[in-house]
Amino acid sequence: xxxxxxxxxxxxxxxxxxxxxxxxxxxxxxxxxxxxxxxxxxxxxxxxxxxxxxxxxxxxxxxxxxxxxxxxxxxxxxxxxxxxxxxxxxxxxxxxxxxxxxxxxxxxxxxxxxxxxxxxxxxxxxxxxxxxxxxxxxxxxxxxxxxxxxxxxxxxxxxxxxxxxxxxxxxxxxxxxxxxxxxxxxxxxxxxxxxxxxxxxxxxxxxxxxxxxxxxxxxxxxxxxxxxxxxxxxxxxxxxxxxxxxxxxxxxxxxxxxxxxxxxxxxxxxxxxxxxxxxxxxxxxxxxxxxxxxxxxxxxxxxxxxxxxxxxxxxxxxxxxxxxxxxxxxxxxxxxxxxxxxxxxxxxxxxx
Length: 352
What we know:
The structure is a single chain. By secondary structure, the protein is mostly helical. The protein folds into 2 domains: 4-213, Rhopdopsin 7-helix transmembrane proteins; 228-343, Homeodomain-like (Arc Repressor Mutant, subunit A), CATH 1.10.10. The chain has helices at 4-28, 34-52, 55-60, 65-73, 75-88, 99-113, 116-143, 151-180, 188-206, 231-242, 254-261, 265-275, 281-297, 307-313, 319-330, 334-343. The chain starts with a helix and ends in a 9-residue tail after the last helix.
């Protein structure tokens, strides 16, 4: 006969699995945005984790246990991909973002069949990689908070993702301790309760399917009409962008721009997001910066100007983020784009 504590844990984990499978189905329908797709897969990984961490459910899965195990060991990597897509507003999904999840799977697969001593080292590496991914998620969440123009998503950054990241970090610590001390069966029910809390929180946020959370592009979300209340601010903003070219200033923040325009920051946020259709302040600036960079790269008179110099001129602090942003918006590297542009306009550059 099943003990009461075992029955309670079975019920809790069953609720977790049900919520996460429903969440996966909900996020998987509608527009196939990168955030939706990675979110749906991560929700399945969470359900698989709830299964594989409890022997009665794990054993009842039969052959399907292998599939659940695969999703479970990739969980931290899939969450990392979901977080980057949810807060990054990427227009296209790049398969490279699945590399950490596949690395976790590869380490776990080798560890599963390796001798005990080697397996222990591999599982330790698996846990440390998962923890490192969660630390990176926290850095991304914190770094992008000020520039996030979607208020519903901005409020979400701290609580939900921090809770999930802390849970995965705690799990990595417990699982690492188990490698050297032994199974922590006493913590199983507590972990299940925590997982239920996270699942309920995720369900409350994502089952509503708020379209503001799942952008389709880093820049404009579509044509917008500036509300009459924001028209005067919109004129001052256009002047700052077109005449003063404030977007060339390295490190320009939305708070700094609002101060320059003499407007409350939340008013400027509302204008750029709801009136102009941008979801992220960096994307708002980068659209101008990349347009200026493209003009410079296509100019035969600047054919010998270093790409890094152009990057600095248009407001980027270093070459790496410029290259990354340029490729994401154009599909090409700056060098490849320059070569194609100059070949179609083969004016002889001035000799130095």
